[in-house]
Automatic annotation (TrEMBL):
<keyword id="KW-0067">ATP-binding</keyword>
<feature type="domain" description="Protein kinase">
    <location>
        <begin position="1"/>
        <end position="194"/>
    </location>
</feature>
<keyword id="KW-0808">Transferase</keyword>
<dbReference type="GO" id="GO:0004674">
    <property type="term" value="F:protein serine/threonine kinase activity"/>
</dbReference>
<keyword id="KW-0418">Kinase</keyword>
<dbReference type="Pfam" id="PF00069">
    <property type="entry name" value="Pkinase"/>
</dbReference>
<keyword id="KW-0547">Nucleotide-binding</keyword>
<dbReference type="GO" id="GO:0005524">
    <property type="term" value="F:ATP binding"/>
</dbReference>
<protein>
    <recommendedName>
        <fullName>Protein kinase domain-containing protein</fullName>
    </recommendedName>
</protein>
<keyword id="KW-0723">Serine/threonine-protein kinase</keyword>
<dbReference type="InterPro" id="IPR011009">
    <property type="entry name" value="Kinase-like_dom_sf"/>
</dbReference>
<dbReference type="InterPro" id="IPR000719">
    <property type="entry name" value="Prot_kinase_dom"/>
</dbReference>
Amino acid sequence: MYDVSFLSSIIPYIVMEYIPFGELFHLWKQIKHFSESLCRFYLANIAITLDYVNKQSIIFRDLKMENLIVDAFGYLKLVDFGLSKSVKNVPHARAFTICGTLQYTSPEMLSSRGYSYSSDWWSLGILAHIMYFGSYPVQPNDKMNTNQMYSQIIAHDYAQIGPPELRNMLAHLLNKDPYKRTSLSTHMASMEFFKNKIDFDAVLRRQVSAYTIER
């Protein structure tokens, strides 16, 4: 996130990249829901980033709109690794702490039986729902505890509305069985929601112009 750092005689300086558009959350609050093409572009952005983070043996654990910022070219950057967990030398790459933001939390995290990288991809599925429909699929109230939230998540059908291609993607990302859940950007790229509509490699190379995408 920073381009250069240097030290004067007494003060350290960090020169950071200028991010003019702030959090994705603020953009969403203004628009409330994104067009399908913009959802597709943002989800490809996040999937590529999340894939890289997981391949570094890190579970991010707090994927949400507030932790995604929009750069000067309209691309997303993932920020705030405060809750992330390195599982490089951990058996089965598992973590057990319940953390993050409740609306985005995976069922396996709430179950306290342990979770791994696929928990992050559940959060991506929640993000996809919010971007497209403009609302959280399950919204906890102030009095709801983790057991009650877990029960609501298990009972909810996440792929009941929307066009077939979207429902298929949500069914894969929000599969309640973490071992069957889509958890690689390469798998996402082959889904009908993305196939022949956006080039993940072009997004990775930043060759897709965000400003030509319909809002």
